[in-house]
Every structure is written in structure tokens, then in C-alpha cells.
UniProtKB/TrEMBL annotation:
InterPro entries: NAD(P)-bd_dom_sf, SDR_fam
Gene3D superfamilies xref list: NAD(P)-binding Rossmann-like Domain
Swiss-Prot/TrEMBL keywords: Oxidoreductase
Organism: Peribacillus faecalis
Pfam families, A to Z: adh_short_C2
Record-given protein name: Glucose 1-dehydrogenase
Family recorded in the similarity comment: Belongs to the short-chain dehydrogenases/reductases (SDR) family.
Gene Ontology molecular function: any one: glucose 1-dehydrogenase [NAD(P)+] activity
GO BP annotations, alphabetical order: bile acid metabolic process
Length: 244
């Protein structure tokens, strides 16, 4: 039996990169998936490629109204919501002296507030379904320091995960966070950064960056019933970087 047979998942930021990898893996394992993204063209094309087990909903993850529309679309198309993967996020690599208040508020809205809104909106649907699993994608910079703004929000995701896990345990809803290191997504391995990433990979204990599918395997585990006793925990997938 497929590991997600009968489950319905919402995955944000799923038009490309890690989100697309998670979606593909989930469908391979029997799930129905609602893909969300701001990139409507790529999202619609990807949903069509995945077939009848996927639908696409254009979403601004920082909008409470858009979250409500996504949950309603999931229930209308597939009847329920069992899994939420809060994957959407942005990076920012400016110093604290360079970043503007507007830029800082934007990264907080997209990386942090969106996770709060996603959980707040999906939890009632999961209660109706009899339980569920929420997987919040943080970062290794939710464990150790990185750039201002990005680090702050990824630490916040880690904290929200623990608070929500304790509250939601009585509902049969598990909440965990995933903390990737350097992953070979298009954003990371584009031509102008490829050499720098290859040089950095020599400092990773496992001597390489991870493929998106490797992160998807971990997210799949947390979405499935195999992880039924795991909640409120951090799952680090960084090739050993934070162990140094």
C-alpha cells in the first residue's frame, strides 16, 4: 500500500523547487495534492502534468482570505485535508544595516505569518477529518545563525511548531519542522551561484549539497502515519553542518 494512500495534502510554494519535489513524491505515494503558489502559469502547468490527483490554487500565503480559499478548494475537490506542508518562503541576504523596514516586514509576512495563517486555517479542517500532520519547512538557519530576517523567521517557525504541537496534540494533529541545509534547487545552483555553492559544499561534512528528493523523503515520512509518535520536533537535513 502506498504510504499516503487516501490522504489529502496542501503544499505551498509548490510550482517549482522543493515544493514541486514534495508534491511529486506525495502523489507517487497515493496522496491527492493541492498545489499553491503565486506563479499561476507554472503552477497550472505542473498540476496538469501531475494529473487528476492534483489541483492548483493561486495563493498569496500572507493573505488570510487566500488561505480560506485554499482550504475550501481542497475540501471541494477531495473532501478533506489531512496534511499541510508550509513550504513557501523567501530568502534575504542583506546585513542588518542595509535591510529596510519594508523588506524586513515582507520576509516576516511570507516566512513567518504565512505559517501561522496556514496552521490556523487548516487545523479546523483537520479536526473534521479526525487528525492530521503539519510539516513546517524551516531551515538550518532556524537552528544556527544566518542572515538577518531569514534567520529570525526560521527560528520563529521552529517556535510556532512547538507551540502548535502541544496545543494540537489533543486533536490528533501532529506538527513538526524540517530544517534543510544547502539544497540543489534552481535558485541555489543557477549559473551565477553554482561555483560558490560547489566551493561551499567542500565544507559540508558529507561533502555535497542535498537533492530536493532527499528532503522530500523526510517530509513524506512526517506526513505519513509512520511518524505517528513524532510531534513538536525538529528534523535536520543538512549533511552535518549544524553538528560542527
Amino acid at each position: 500500500m502506498a504510504r499516503l494512500e487516501g490522504k489529502v495534502a496542501i503544499i505551498t510554494g509548490a510550482a517549482q523547487g522543493m515544493g514541486a519535489s514534495h508534491a511529486r513524491k506525495f502523489i507517487e505515494e497515493g496522496a491527492k495534492v493541492v498545489l499553491t503558489d503565486l506563479n499561476e502559469e507554472k503552477g497550472q502547468a505542473f498540476a496538469a502534468e501531475l494529473g487528476e490527483s492534483a489541483i492548483f490554487v493561486k495563493q498569496n500565503v500572507a493573505s488570510a482570505e487566500d488561505w480560506q480559499k485554499v482550504v475550501e478548494a481542497a475540501e471541494e475537490a477531495f473532501g478533506k485535508v489531512d496534511v499541510l506542508v508550509n513550504n513557501a518562503g523567501i530568502t534575504m541576504a542583506k546585513s542588518i544595516l542595509q535591510v529596510s523596514v519594508e523588506e524586513y516586514r515582507r520576509i516576516v509576512e511570507i516566512n513567518q505569518v504565512s505559517v501561522f495563517l496556514g496552521m490556523k486555517t487548516v487545523i479546523p479542517a483537520m479536526q473534521k477529518a479526525g487528525g492530521g500532520s503539519i510539516v513546517n519547512i524551516s531551515s538550518m538557519n532556524g537552528i544556527v545563525a544566518g542572515a538577518i530576517g531569514y534567520t529570525d523567521t526560521k527560528f520563529a517557525v521552529r517556535g510556532m511548531t512547538k507551540a502548535a504541537a502541544v496545543e494540537c496534540a489533543n486533536y490528533g494533529i501532529r506538527v513538526n519542522s524540517v530544517h534543510p541545509g544547502v539544497i540543489a534547487t534552481p535558485m541555489v545552483v543557477q549559473e551565477d551561484t553554482k561555483a560558490a555553492v560547489e566551493a561551499f559544499s567542500k565544507h559540508i561534512p558529507l561533502k555535497r549539497v542535498a537533492e530536493p528528493e532527499e528532503v522530500s523523503n523526510l517530509v513524506l515520512y512526517l506526513a505519513s502515519d509512520e511518524s505517528c509518535y513524532s510531534t513538536g520536533s525538529e528534523f535536520i537535513i543538512d549533511g552535518g553542518l549544524t553538528a560542527m
